[in-house]
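Per reviewer request, we include the raw input and output of the structure prediction for the construct analysed in the revised manuscript.
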Amino acid sequence: MSHVVIEAAPAYETPSTGYEDIEYIENKNVPMASLFSGPQESRIKEPAQALGAYICGEAVQLLSSIACTLATRREHHGFRTAVVAESLDGASDSVNLLRDNKKSVDIISGRTVEPHCANGAVWVFSDFGSQWQGMGKELVAKEIVFQDAIAELDVVILSELGFSARKVLEEGDFDDDSADRILLLIPLVQIGFAVVLRSRGVRLSAIIGHSVAEVSAAVAAGAFTPKEGAIVLRKRAILIREVMGKRAMLMVNAPYQQVEESSEPRPR
C-alpha cells in the first residue's frame, strides 16, 4: 500500500521581468521594436502580413505587449528584421511597408553572424590629427596594464629621442608644433590601449591602421612585437626631425583638375 500526500506548492515571489511598468511606458510613446525572423529574407513577409492584420483587428493589445511577445516568446532565425514604432498606427504603417517590400528608416534588416564565422570587433587606428590635450592621461594614471605596456616601450624611445613618452602622457602635454612627438605618441597610445582591451577580453577579427597607425596596427595584429614597433616609430621620429620646419602641407578642398589648372608649373 502507498500513501501520497498532496499539498499546495510553497509560495514564492515572482521574479521581475522588467515589463511590470509596460503600460506606463506605452503612454510615454517610447519607440519599440517589433521583431521578425526567418531562414531567408523572403520569409519575413508572411509574419509581417499576419501582424498587420492582427493590429487592425478588434482584439488588438498594447504595442508593448506585441513587441515583448515577438522578442521573447518565439525562436529566432538567421535573418532578422526590426520594425521600430511609437504607436500601433505607426507599427501598422511600417509593417505594411515591410509586407510590400518597401524601404523605411524604421525598418532595419540583417543577417546574424553564423556560429562558425569570426564575430570579433574590427579595430581602426587613426593617424595624425586624432590627438588631443590630455590624451592617455587617465589611462596612464589608472590602468596598470597600460602603464606596463608604455613603460616597456619608453625605454626604447628615451634612449635616442631624449624624452619620456610616459611623462608626456602623464602631463597631458601635446605640443601641436612637435610633429615628431605627436606621430610617436599616437601609435604608442594605440598599442597600450590594445593591450588594455585584450586584458578585458576584447578580441579582434580585423584591424586597420592609417599611415603611422599602420605600425600600431601591425603590433596589435602580431606582425611586430611591441619593441619592434617602438623601434620603427623611434626611427620615424628621428627622420621627421630632419625635415621639420623645412616643408609645409596644404589642404585644399577642390578637385585635382581645378588645382592643377590654377597652379604654376612645378620647377624642375
